[in-house]
Automatic annotation (TrEMBL):
This is histidine kinase. Keywords: Kinase, Membrane, Phosphoprotein, Transferase, Transmembrane, Transmembrane helix, Two-component regulatory system. Pfam families: HATPase_c, HisKA. The chain crosses the membrane at residues 12-34, 40-61. It comes from the Bacteria.
Amino acid sequence: MGIKYRKSYKFAVKSSVVITLFSTLLLLVLQYLFFNINMLFTVTFTLLFFAFSFFVLQYRVERFIYRRIQKIYKEVSILDESVLRNQPVTTDMQTLMYEVNKFASDKKIEIESLKVQEEYRREFIGNVAHELKTPLFTVQGYVSTLLDGVKDKAIRKKYLERADKGIERLIDIVSDLDMITKLETNELKLNKQTFDIVELFQNVFDLLEMKADKKDITLMFDKDHYRSIYVNGDREKINQVVLNLIDNSIKYGKENGTTEVSIEGLTDKKLLIRITDNGYGIEKKHIPRLFERFYRTDASRSRDIGGSGLGLSIVKHIIEAHNEHIYVESKVGVGSEFSFTIEKAVKK
Ligand SMILES: Nc1ncnc2c1ncn2[C@@H]1O[C@H](COP(=O)(O)OP(=O)(O)OP(=O)(O)O)[C@@H](O)[C@H]1O
Ligand SMILES: [Mg+2]
């Protein structure tokens, strides 16, 4: 423990002096009354009596207190009895104090972290409820209108389609949440394989072309890739990463903007993939929290274009499950760049 303890004799010395003084005085009185006072006898008696009472007190009291402390250690299961050594009682009093203080501060830290977790959990449940409410009420609205009876067939179809969209949105949120939970509890096993990353990007470009066209955003590579570039990873999951990053670059990109993808070698074994847009950009204060579940910047909230804010959290989990890294750089008004590393595949 590294703490020096001082053994104390004060109690035994003081008590022995008091007892010895009293008994010597008594002895002198008795001698005076019944015999003559014998000084040699008195001094010898005093010394012997003092020595005897000192040893009895020092030893007995020590044992007594030691046993009491031992009982405390035994009864208070939080204290480790093995810490209590058979040492002078003063030492063990200090050990007890040290142990109790340590226990108290450990518990304090534990309680603090539990409070943080509790807060996080409450916030999470609040967020889930909030996200589910909007599509749920939309569906409910259309369904109850339909139940009330809508004569026009075309309107009926329109309402049904909208309700269907709402349900789709609900399914999306629930499956995103499911995915996050699985990623966080390491339940999701990666299905690693070798695949062509250029082709994967091309497929995502094709898939999101219509969405990009609506804002006149061009999706492109920084240079022509005539040859395939093979990487190792879970194709489906990496597809999800790319899909969300490109989707974000469109959602938060400006009209007539560009989303540019670059694939370049980083080391012998790694590639760096960058997705750059010239959109709204992200304020510096948001960057550290960007990958948190449900986190959205005020800008995307006020523009009402954002999703549920789960995308980047899933992206980060997937990249980390691959033991890779994701980076973000952004400047308001200039644009954002999300980049991640991935393992190169040995040429086939
Ligand atoms: N390329 C980008 N440019 C500007 N802001 C971005 C960009 N990508 C992400 N953001 C900000 O980060 C937030 C979180 O992104 P994330 O992908 O996690 O959620 P989302 O796109 O809002 O919803 P989801 O992906 O779940 O549908 C976004 O709401 C947006 O505010
Ligand atoms: Mg997103």
